[in-house]
What does this fold into?
Amino acid sequence: MSKTLMSFPRKQHLSFPQKQHLSFLRKQESSLSATKIVILLSKYLSRAALIFMFLIGASSAFGAVSVNDPNLRQSSADDQTFGAESNPTGNPIGGGKGYRRLVSKGDYKVNTAEELLSALKKAHAGEIVYISDKAEIDLTATKKIVIPGGVILASGRGKNNSPGALLYSNDLATSPMFLAGGPKVRLTGLRLRGPDRQRRTEQMRKLHKEGRYYSIPNSDGIICSHPHLEVDNCELFGFSHAAVFLKRGASKALIHHNYMHHNQRSGLGYGVCLDQSDALIQANLFDFCRHHIAGTGRPGTSYEACYNLVLPNANGHSFDMHGGRDRKDGTDIAGDLIKIHHNTFRATSVRAVVIRGRPTKSVEIHHNWFLHADPEKAVAQTNAAGNMNISRNQYTARRTIKD
It folds into this structure.
């Protein structure tokens, strides 16, 4: 079975070898009374216990998340706050003004498409390609631009109120604009504008009936098939398929503090789409997408979504996981493990969460703030039942801090 999104922390071994400890006590025995030995052992054990507690608490279900990273946080089990507004990351939901993890300079600074392509061909892991904050670069004539593994592509969204460099394409077949060429690629502080912000509802229905749905090309912003992709503090809009498409091999992706909107083609239209991949999707601002988060549901597909703010405009339910009936593979499998917590859902005209089958492990939905008055209109499981846990959410028009 494919690796899933979550793994339990392994037992941590403290760095106090038993032999060294006993030798220390023997050396101290001649000068320490029994009482002092007890005190020493008490202090030692207390220190060890504290270290052990720290290590266990620090262990992340996503091995890629560092406890020292102020931008990302796993909430504790006893957290009694609800909704995205409890955002503990230290950075604004959606990024932009006030975002602290800015990249301000690079090994290559570019202003044009030609300079960008040249820099990416030269860049190596650990290097930064920085696009001038005021640059507006037309990439219509170029697609599938490869960002080498370990390279950071950056601009200054949020720096001195800058919107960041704008990279755009007018070609409906832009799929993708950028392709991660290896592990640990990061895109930060950018604006990526795709070629199609329309829903095309009636047009796509007609084409679907005629068996020609894909006769109109679709577009993606970023496609990745490698581990540890990071997309942060970006504005991603106008992509008819997905702003970020995580394909098989894209494990431990971090998609956080972005503003994703107008990715909404009828029948497609995803902010983040996952296929046999896993991701932590945190502190993003979503609006005008068909599904802000969606998964194919094939085994190996998992995600954790937390501290995201979903604004009112939508043409489909907000968070999704497809099931076997969607894929027509003879199963009811809807991914592996889905964790949805501490999100705020303002789009009450559609359901907030729909799981279209049964996950192989579970769905955990808790500490969210749904503005839906009726819980049954907020969350649904279709086509199958089981492995779905819903608890400690709020369904109110006004947020309650504590329950």
